[in-house]
Amino acid sequence: MKLFDLLIALLIMMIWGFNFVVAKWGLAYMPPIFLMALRFAAVAAILLPFARIPRAKLREIFFLSVTLGCVHFSLMFMGLTGVNAGAAAIAIQLQVPFAAILAAIFFGDKLGWRRALGMAAAFAGIVVLAGEPRLTGHTGSLLLVIAASFMWAVTNIQIKHMGSVDGFALSAWMSLFAVPQLLIVSALLESGQIEALLHIAWPAAGVILYMAVIVTVVSYGMWYHLLRNYSVNQAMPFTLLVPVFGVMSGVLLLDEPFTWRLVAGGLATLAGVGIIVVRRPRLAEPEATAKTT
To answer: How far apart are the C-alpha atoms of 266 and 93, rounded to whole Å?
Structure first.
């Protein structure tokens, strides 16, 4: 990989890892599901004027907006309300072993003993992480993040069946479809949305813009550039740096403790995920991996 593209890959991982801290900042000002609705509204407003209408794929994109845009992100950000950024960045990596399991079930991919070992290590790492004293009383929040990682794996099945579709068109139309769903769910489960919107603070607006512009438009654009120029096996291993940057950001910017359980659980999870990534199942597509934050 050229030095310039290597630096781009590292920058993308920094953006995605830092996004966990940005999300925690945003949750201090707005309810989680409502925050996601505003994020996707901003994404749709930015991308729709430039995105073609994938008429043949609109039905599939709508169903993807339900599982990914609504369910996955709702679970993820509700979980983040009770879990530290570093712990969430590690726990969400279970999306890769979940994807491998679903690939075996629905596409006949053979797991093999190496992938099975990787899965065992990844789940064992989360068990160690769950023993963190900071997570006492917040097990439910951690389970929400794990459920979000499973839903990400489910969306891979949809993306696999969907076939080829422009990445920005997919993001634009999925975002548009997700907004009303998220607003309805937010109205049913949350309160204080109108007040939060009418008195929106500049940090909250900055969080929404970061998620919409930097994460979705800029970083995805750079990621698609790498995928056009390099093989999946060259690009995918870089995603293992996302939880590293997530943990570092949490420690440096949110003053999150750097404990032995966080290190041990994180290393075990990343080692397990690394084994699976190297022996990548067909469902662990990089385009979907980028959508976890």
So the answer is: 10
CA 133 → CA 27, 128, 129, 173, distances in Å?
22, 11, 9, 41
Neighbours of 105 (CB within 10 A): 11
Q: Give the N- to C-terminal CA distance of the chain in Å, as an integer.
A: 25
Contact yes or no for 142/285 (Cβ under 8 A)? no
Q: Give the list of residues 6+ apart from residue 159 with CB closer than 8 angstroms, or none.
A: 64, 285, 287, 288
Joined together, the tokens standing for residue 246 give: 């997530």
Q: Are 253 and 223 a contacting pair, CB within 8 Å?
A: no
The amino acid at residue 48 is L
In the chain, the amino acid numbered 14 is M
Question: What are the tens digits of pLDDT across the range 49-108?
Answer: 988 888 888 999 999 999 999 999 999 999 999 999 999 999 998 988 888 888 888 777
Q: What φ, ψ does residue 199 adopt, rounded to 5°?
A: -115, 40
Amino acid present at 214: I
Number of helices and strands in the chain (H, E): 16, 0
**How many CB atoms neighbour CB 166 within 10 A?**
14
Query: DSSP 3-state assignment of 29?
Result: coil
Residue 18, amino acid: F
What is the rounded CA–CA span in Å between residue 66 and residue 234? 31
Q: Which two tokens stand for residue 245?
A: 């940057």
